[in-house]
């Protein structure tokens, strides 16, 4: 079963209890390889927040959208309990982030109550050993950006999408859930994914993400985001965890999306 998404996702993720494993698999992290500080620890999830900009390009079908964004990870968890910053040192001595691009095919022009299927996805995870990058959130006019400062260590990447859904709920909040391939990056000189994610070996070959927010984190180029051409999504909290080989059945993915949309109708806020 998925872990709680900062309090927001507990109800939605509980819907998967009958079809998913009882816990996310555990992995081991060695933060000392990035910043020289911290303690080797176990975790089963990485928590963070995301900013992305979804756009409809001229010439594409009216229901096809593309997006660019980043996710900034600010902590690890094990059995729904946080791994302290004194142990992990993430967001203290080093930063951890991902950049991604996507394409969506939606049930119609994007707006509240419109659901989408993710048709392509690419992803790279990086470590910022100085924790001194800058992050600019998306606007209607501009994609979100990561201002890189100094050397960065590439940890993992993916351009393999197993399954994905997303959209805007009936009140305009955004949700997205992905299952994608996961490959650790091997650098013969610099610290890399194999140095940072030290166990298991071989490492998990698939990852799950779930991100959700309220309508307060969304700006569109149209009134009430109806038939929007551009959607800027900020303040989106989420979780990343892993799976060895299993790909969730389509019914399970749809159930998770339904649970997330129900969150919007209850106007729950992030904890």
Keywords:
eight-stranded antiparallel β-barrel, 271 residues, Flocculation-associated PEP-CTERM protein PepA, signal, Ice-binding_C, disordered N terminus, three-stranded antiparallel sheet, mainly beta, disordered C terminus, 5 helices
3D structure, described in words:
This protein has 271 residues and is mainly beta. The chain has one domain. Helix content is 12%, strand content 44%. Strands 3-4-6-7-11-12-15-17 form an 8-stranded antiparallel beta barrel. A 3-stranded antiparallel beta sheet has the order 2-1-14. The longest helix has 16 residues, at 250-265. It is elongated, with a radius of gyration of 18 Å. Mean pLDDT is 86; it is low at 1-22 and 246-271. It comes from Pseudoduganella guangdongensis. Residues 1-23 form the signal peptide. This is Flocculation-associated PEP-CTERM protein PepA.
**How far is it from the N-terminal to the C-terminal residue, by CA?**
20 Å
Question: Domains counted in the coordinates: how many?
Answer: 1
What general outline do the C-alpha atoms trace? elongated
Oligomer: single chain
The portion of residues assigned to helices is: 10-25%
Mean pLDDT: 86
Helix/sheet category: mainly beta
Number of helices: 5
| Total number of strands | 17
Protein name: Flocculation-associated PEP-CTERM protein PepA
Organism: Pseudoduganella guangdongensis
Keywords: Signal
């Amino acid at each position: 079963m998925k872990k709680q998404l900062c309090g927001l996702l507990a109800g939605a993720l509980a819907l998967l209890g009958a079809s998913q494993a009882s816990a996310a698999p555990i992995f081991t992290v060695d933060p000392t390889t990035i910043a020289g500080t911290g303690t080797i620890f176990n975790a089963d999830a990485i928590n963070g927040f995301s900013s992305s900009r979804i756009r409809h390009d001229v010439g594409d079908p009216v229901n096809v959208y593309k997006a660019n964004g980043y996710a900034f990870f600010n902590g690890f968890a094990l059995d729904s309990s946080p791994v302290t910053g004194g142990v992990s040192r993430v967001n203290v001595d080093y930063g951890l982030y991902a950049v991604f691009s996507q394409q969506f095919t939606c049930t119609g022009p994007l707006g509240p109550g419109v659901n989408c299927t993710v048709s392509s996805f690419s992803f790279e995870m990086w470590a910022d050993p100085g924790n001194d990058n800058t992050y600019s959130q998306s606007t209607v006019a501009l994609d979100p950006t990561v201002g890189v400062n100094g050397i960065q260590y590439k940890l993992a990447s993916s351009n393999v999408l197993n399954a994905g859904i997303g959209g805007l709920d009936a009140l305009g909040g955004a949700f997205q859930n992905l299952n994608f391939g996961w490959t650790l990056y091997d650098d013969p000189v610099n610290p890399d994914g194999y140095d940072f994610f030290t166990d298991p070996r071989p490492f998990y070959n698939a990852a799950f993400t779930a991100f959700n927010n309220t309508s307060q984190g969304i700006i569109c180029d149209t009134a009430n985001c109806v038939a929007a051409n551009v959607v800027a999504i900020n303040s989106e909290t989420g979780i990343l965890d892993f799976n060895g080989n299993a790909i969730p059945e389509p019914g399970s993915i749809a159930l998770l999306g339904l649970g997330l949309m129900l969150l919007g109708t209850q106007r729950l806020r992030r904890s």
